[in-house]
Amino acid sequence: MILQTLAFYLFAAILLFSAVVVISARNPVHSVLCLILAFFNAAALFILIGAEFLAMILVIVYVGAVAVLFLFVVMMLDIDLAEMRQGFLNYLPIGALVGLVLLIELIIVAGLWQYEPAMAGGLAEPVPPLEVRSNTAALGDVLYTRYALLFQAAGIILLIAMIGAIVLTLRHRQIKRQRIGDQVRRRPEDVIRLHDARRGEGV
To answer: Which residues contact 27 (CB under 8 A, 6 or more apart)?
Structure first.
């Protein structure tokens, strides 16, 4: 029990530190690397509470796909850090105002939050042992029965977002098409040039 408590505080401290570095680092590559570290520590916390399926999904999907994609995109882009700092100072008042509004909303939600009777009844339901039902199977039972409508709605929202991203980034480019007849009728003297190079001279 003591080892689990120490592991929880260790992973939680590293998670909080890496999350702060993600939003405070000036180098975007460092931010993405700290984001990957935060995902790994969050997966470790999921393992500590017995949610190994969520930990696996977090590592495979977010670390293995999303975060690595962010890292490749950031490394491939030519980012002007000086210009980014100027933009940060220009938008600092608006960002501080938005952050203050979000903080007030979180305080209101935390102060007025309470358990719903249905939620309390759901939390009181016994969790099946691992010998009878695995963690993944139990999660699937709840996801595809009680929350099936919300699951389908989330899929539709993601589909709409994907289609919108494709439409916004689509560029109609003029493609140079191949003309087989022109290639067949082409004469060698039109495309080949002979050059008589003397000794010691390059072409």
So the answer is: 81
- Assign residue 57 a region (left: φ > 0; alpha: ψ between -120 and 50; beta: otherwise): alpha
Which range of residues forms the domain containing residue 38? 1-83
pLDDT score of 141: 82
Residue 72 lies in a domain: yes
The answer, as to whether pTM is greater than 0.85, is: no
CATH number of residue 26's parent domain: 1.20.120.1200
Rounded to an integer, what distance in angstroms lies between the CA atom of residue 72 and that of residue 74?
6
Give the integer Cα–Cα distance in Å for 76 and 9. 36
Q: How many domains does the chain have?
A: 2
Number of CB atoms found within 10 A of residue 12's CB = 15
The secondary element (H helix, E strand) that includes residue 190 is: helix 188-191
d(Cα 44, Cα 63) in Å, to the nearest integer?
13
DSSP conformation letters of 92-109: HHHHHHHHHHHHHHHHHH
pLDDT at 137: 81
pLDDT by 10-residue block (mean), the chain, 203 residues: 85 92 82 87 88 85 79 69 62 83 84 60 60 77 85 91 84 74 80 75 61
Q: How far are the Cα atoms of 24, 33, 63, 92, 97 from residue 88, in angstroms, in the given order?
A: 11, 21, 27, 6, 14
